[in-house]
Amino acid sequence: MTTLAETKTSSRPPRVRQIGPRARAQRKEAIALVAPALLPIIIFSVIPLVSGVLLGFTDATLARNAEISFIGLDNFIELAGDRRFWQSFGIGIVWAGSVALLTLVSAMGLALLLNSNLRLKGLTRVLALIPWAMPPVVIAIVWRMIYNPNSGPLNGVLGWLGIPGVNWLGDFSTALPAVIVVGVWAGIPQTTVLLLAGMQSIAPEQHEAAAVDGAGAVRRFWHVTLPALRPVIIAVTALDFIWQFNSFGLIYVLTEGGPGGRTMIPPLFTYLEAFRNREIGYASAMGNVLVVAILVILSLYLINQFRQNKGARK
């Protein structure tokens, strides 16, 4: 049986935590400090994203005085049967996956080199970061000059070796590989910096212990360096894939999606549909599909990170 005191205690309403004037002032101060950073994000990211999603359900065009009508899922139904878009989607996956993997392999080798006792290490790091300092448009223009079938230095070297020149960006079989090479060259510096930071965070004692056990450089790389870099590798590869899948300027300047749509990735296809064919509503529906695809990839990455953190806590 419960006593009278216990009954009175259990019947009391829960005590509401009062927020004092000082706490209110601190909260207002925090909001005032965060607001300048949040406003640009809301204006330049959130509002355009919401507007783009809504336009995907309309028949909006760039024609003058054209009325915008809500058409529901018509754009998405038409998009489901648009073979050209899904071809560009496949090309985008090949492009992004190839660039992300080749960049990882190349940057890993460069990071290992920079992490060693290399002479002129500082100068080498500066030279390795040059592509990172160049805008994508400038990179594309430089590589168009390199790939030029008539006056480009690449075909000049091939001619000196007695090998016939190639129309690198105009031939159906070489256009996509040539563009992938440019994407890898442009993406190496950022990945190298992240991998190098991960390598320098590994305790030297781990390599020393492996060396004492008789492990050579290759075995130390496979059994010490790679396991320690696993979280960095997963994060870099996932984010690089997303970045490349959304890339636009590099391929637009290099090929504009040609020849014959061989390098037509989804963002470029969406841009041409919006501003060349003037179908803003249909292009927005394409953008919505791309947003969903990127969210799926991000979800897989975040789930993997959550599992890793959970396993580390255990």
UniProtKB/TrEMBL annotation:
Highest taxon, organism lineage: Bacteria
InterPro entries, per the entry: ABC_transporter_permease, MetI-like, MetI-like_sf
Keyword Cell membrane: yes
Region (Disordered): 1-22
Keywords: Cell membrane, Membrane, Sugar transport, Transmembrane, Transmembrane helix, Transport
Residue ranges of every copy of the ABC transmembrane type-1 domain listed in the record: 89-301
Comp. bias intervals (Polar residues): 1-12
Membrane-spanning intervals of the chain: 30-57, 89-114, 126-146, 175-197, 228-254, 280-303
Compartments, record wording: Cell membrane
Record-linked Pfam families: BPD_transp_1
CDD domains for the chain: TM_PBP2 (cd06261)
Topology class, membrane: Multi-pass membrane protein
Family, similarity comment: Belongs to the binding-protein-dependent transport system permease family.
Protein name per Swiss-Prot or TrEMBL: Multiple sugar transport system permease protein
Species name: Microbacterium paludicola
Source species taxonomy: Bacteria, Bacillati, Actinomycetota, Actinomycetes, Micrococcales
